[in-house]
Design goal:
There is one protein chain. This protein is α/β, with parallel strands linked by helices. It has 2 domains: 7-70, Chemotaxis Receptor Methyltransferase Cher, domain 1 (Orthogonal Bundle); 81-270, 3-Layer(aba) Sandwich (Rossmann fold). 46% of the residues lie in helices and 17% in strands. The longest helix is centred in the N-terminal third of the chain and has 19 residues, at 81-99. The chain is globular and about 60 Å long. The termini are far apart.
Length: 271
C-alpha cells in the first residue's frame, strides 16, 4: 500500500477536509471513515486518497457530497417504537410531574428532524394525557453539523416513508396533508434547530431533562466517545434521562453519574 492510499494519505485528506470545511472527521472510527470515503471515491472514479484530495481541490461541490456521505443518518419518526413507548409510558410522565411541565430536551445529531419532532409529539401527548392546560412550556433543542439536513428539518415536510412507523392516531393529530405530510405548527413551535459540532461545541443550552443521541456516538473513536458521554452527563439535570442507540455502550467517567435504567432500550438516568 502506497502512502497515497495508506495511513499517511488518509491523515493528509482528513487534515484537508478540516481546513476547508471545519469538519473533524478524524475523530471517526477509521474503518467507518474509510468506508464512507470509499463511497465518494468510487463515485469520482479515483482509487487513492491523494487523487480524491485533488478532486476536492478542483471541485468545491464535491465537498457537499462528501459531507452528506460522512454525516448520513438513517432516521424515521418513531423509529424503534419500543424506545419511544418506554419514554412515553414512564420516563417523560415522571419528568413532567417532577418539573411541572417545564421540560427541556436535546436531540443531538438530529439529521433531517424526525427525532426532535418525535420528542415534541411525545411532550404534547404526555401533556394531553395528564390533562395539562395552558401553553406548553417544553422545548426541544435539535442540533446537527449538516446544514442541508437542518434546512430539510426546518421545512418540516416528509414523505410517507419517514412516517411509516408513526402510530396512525399520532399521524392524524400532528400532521397535515397527503402523500408528503407537514408537521403541524403546535409541534414545530416546540423545536429549535441549530448547527452544532458535537466534537467541538459545548451542549447548546443546558441543563436538559432528556438527551437523545442514538446511533451517532458509535461512529467516533473511544476517546471522543468518553468525552461526549461526560458532556451529556454534565448537561443533564439530576434525574434526567439519556437515550442511546441499541448497540451503543456507555464508557468512561460518565458511568459514575449515569446508571443504566432500561437495558433493552439503552436508557440511562442521571444520579
Amino acid at each position: 500500500m502506497s502512502d497515497d492510499d495508506g495511513a499517511a494519505g488518509l491523515a493528509s485528506l482528513v487534515a484537508q477536509i478540516a481546513r476547508a470545511r471545519g469538519f473533524g472527521c478524524g475523530a471517526y472510527k477509521e474503518s467507518c471513515l474509510r468506508r464512507r470515503l470509499a463511497v465518494r471515491m468510487r463515485a469520482c472514479g479515483v482509487s487513492t486518497y491523494a487523487e480524491y484530495a485533488r478532486v476536492l481541490e478542483g471541485n468545491a461541490a464535491e465537498y457537499e457530497h462528501l459531507l452528506d456521505t460522512l454525516t448520513i443518518n438513517v432516521t424515521k419518526f418513531y423509529r424503534n417504537r419500543e424506545t419511544w413507548d418506554a419514554l412515553a409510558d414512564r420516563y417523560v410522565p415522571d419528568l413532567w410531574r417532577a418539573r411541572g411541565g417545564r421540560l427541556r430536551a436535546w436531540s443531538a445529531g438530529c439529521a433531517s428532524g424526525e427525532e426532535p419532532y418525535t420528542i415534541a409529539i411525545l411532550f404534547l401527548e404526555v401533556a394531553r394525557r395528564l390533562g395539562s392546560d395552558g401553553p406548553l412550556r417544553a422545548r426541544v433543542d435539535a442540533t446537527d453539523f449538516d446544514r442541508h439536513s437542518l434546512e430539510r428539518a426546518r421545512r418540516g415536510v416528509y414523505a410517507a416513508a419517514a412516517l411509516e412507523e408513526l402510530p396512525d392516531e399520532l399521524l392524524r393529530r400532528h400532521f397535515s396533508g397527503e402523500g408528503e405530510c407537514a408537521v403541524n405548527p403546535a409541534v414545530r413551535e416546540l423545536v429549535r434547530f441549530r448547527q452544532h459540532d458535537l466534537l467541538r461545541d459545548p451542549p447548546p443550552d443546558p441543563p436538559y431533562d432528556l438527551i437523545v443521541c442514538r446511533n451517532v456516538v458509535i461512529y467516533f473513536d473511544r476517546p471522543n466517545q468518553d468525552r461526549l458521554f461526560s458532556a451529556f452527563a454534565d448537561a443533564l439535570t439530576p434525574g434526567g434521562v439519556l437515550v442511546l442507540g441499541k448497540v451503543e455502550t456507555l464508557f468512561g467517567a460518565a458511568r459514575t453519574s449515569l446508571r443504566l435504567d432500561d437495558t433493552r432500550e439503552r436508557i440511562f438516568r442521571r444520579s
